[in-house]
Amino acid sequence: MLRLLVTIVAALALAGPAPVAAQTDAEWQKVIEAAKKEGKLALYTAAIGATFHKDVVRSFEAKYGIRVEAFEARASEVRERIRIEQAAGRFLGDVHHNGATTTWLMLQDGALQPHGGIPNIRNLMPLYQADAHRVPSDVTSYALLVNRTMVKEADEPRSWQDLLDPKWSGKMLADDMRALGGGAVFFFVTHDLFGKAYHEKLAAQKLVFSRDLRNNERRTARGEYPIYFPFSLAFYTQIKSLPVKLVVPVEGRPFVRFELSVLKNAPHPNAARLFINHFLEIESQLIYANAGSSPVVKGVIERASPDMRPFLATKAMGTTTPERQNEMLDLAKQYYK
Description:
This protein has 13 helices and eleven strands. Strands 1, 2, 3, 4, 5, 6, 7, 8, 9, 10 and 11 form an eleven-stranded mixed sheet that branches. The chain is of the alpha/beta class. Helices cover about 40% and strands about 20% of the residues. The two termini are about 25 Å apart. About 45% of the residues are buried. α2 (about 25-40) crosses α10 (about 270-280) and α6 crosses α7 (about 195-205). It is globular and about 65 Å long. β1 (about 40-45), α3 and β2 (about 65-70) form a beta-alpha-beta unit. The protein folds into two domains: about 35-140 and about 255-310, D-Maltodextrin-Binding Protein, domain 2 (3-Layer(aba) Sandwich), CATH 3.40.190; about 140-255 and about 315-335, Periplasmic binding protein-like II (D-Maltodextrin-Binding Protein, domain 2, 3-Layer(aba) Sandwich).
């Protein structure tokens, strides 16, 4: 438990104190006017094919008349494209949208510049703070997915510890904990909270690993496996009509946050600031919340759809810290051969 608290504190320390937002409404109005003159921005994002993300982008374009050109790719591919462009002196991107670990790596690369102040930072929840370069945009949380026809309500796992029950041996599908993704987040958080013995016992449960995230949930729905974990809440609205049930264990949900940053020498810096601020508007955060992504600003969860509100209101269990990423991946490989 102490290790987990240290992890959370370290994550908050990494983010650092929120920078001062634009001091006056008049100053921010100048940013808006300058952004409209810039007329467009280039967004590099790891949110591949996320319809709710596109909805927020479209709402920004409609509100401000600023065109967004988006490049979508996996986290590592986004980082590599930016590295190549910047190394060649081609500064084409304005906004970087990616997971906290990749964003941290980008900061170490020197690929980001200070955003200059974002008014809506003042509305962030205490757990999700910003610093001079990184602004949280949304949170991906993980839970359990169970097949309703195979698992009676009385037998549903209520705790992450329940996965150690011998009756589930050889019957659980899991995202691979030895590679970056939800499985690695789950391993990181639960190892800090439950310790070595937990994963020794879980490894003995003969888990079936798969990296095919979108097919894993459907394999569970088809009855190939009664339990799949860790399952992203952001996918639940797309499969809730299937014979599956989302279960958030009593200890809470491991999570990883996505962040927005302004890229070094951004050609449209004012549009970039305005875009980040728009992402933190309650209306934008509500789009994410209704799709199953946890919001980062206050006053959103209580407005979320009745289907998602109970899950979003559950306890945030813990997250990862980028500095320990390789250490934890290596450790997972020792448990799960």
